[in-house]
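We include the entry.

. . .
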Amino acid sequence: MDADGVAPGLPEFKRMLRAFSAGREFDAVEEVFDEMLLRGLVPDVGVYNVYVGTLCGKGDLVGARRMAPAAHRT
């Protein structure tokens, strides 16, 4: 998308997160989440649900609990 001069928005990042999460590509989910934040996008509840679900799926319950307060603020 960026190559065409169009920056992806929150819906596009959410789709990428869901796709990588469904494929159990945990590192890719974290990279996409970090990139979204670096671009100044604010995650919504749907993004946090995917991200926390991914953390739980890979067994990182501590990380998932750490994200809970941020998800409640959205």
About this structure: The chain has a mean pLDDT of 89.
